[in-house]
């Protein structure tokens, strides 16, 4: 009987949902656009490296929020510790005001990505320089080794 109870307990543990640990985190910084480039800015937060083994990949989206070019921002969010490690911050500026990061006919929206040096702590600071037209976050980041 005792062996059955131990086996049942092991099965329940093995079949239970994995930990979904979240950590409250604050990111602050500035998005820098070239002189004369204006428009709404969208900031996207990513887990720098997500998962493990063969499933390990860069840039797992966490959250999106608005900011203004040239003005400091601060944003508090829940960081999904269970997904991986590090913090990457991508931003783009909507130069034509259409709400879409580039289209086949309009290629003026600028983007940039910064890796938070202290991305595994409770607070991170970044400066994102918008330099590249129509580049997605993955273009700025090297592929997994």
What features would you describe in this structure?
This protein has one domain: Carboxypeptidase-like, regulatory domain (Immunoglobulin-like), CATH 2.60.40. It has helices spanning 2-15, 137-140; strands at 22-32, 41-50, 57-67, 72-80, 84-93, 110-115, 123-129, 132-133. The chain is built from 2 helices and 8 strands, in the order αββββββββα. It is elongated and about 75 Å long. Strand 2 (41-50) and strand 3 (57-67) form a beta hairpin.
Total helical segments: 2
Rg value: 20 Å
The CA-CA distance between the termini, in Å, is 49 Å
| Overall CATH class | Mainly Beta
Spatial order of the strands in the main sheet? Answer: 3-2-5-6-8
Low-confidence stretches: none
Provide the residue-averaged pLDDT. Answer: 87
By CATH, the topology is Immunoglobulin-like
Name of the CATH superfamily: Carboxypeptidase-like, regulatory domain
Summed up, the domain count is 1
User: Based on DSSP secondary structure assignment, what is the total number of beta strands?
Assistant: 8
Largest sheet: 5 strands, antiparallel
* Beta-strand content: over 45%
The dominant shape is elongated
- Assign a percent range to the helix content: 10-25%
The helix/strand series, from N terminus to C terminus, equals HEEEEEEEEH
CATH architecture: Sandwich
Helices and strands: which structural class?
A: mainly beta
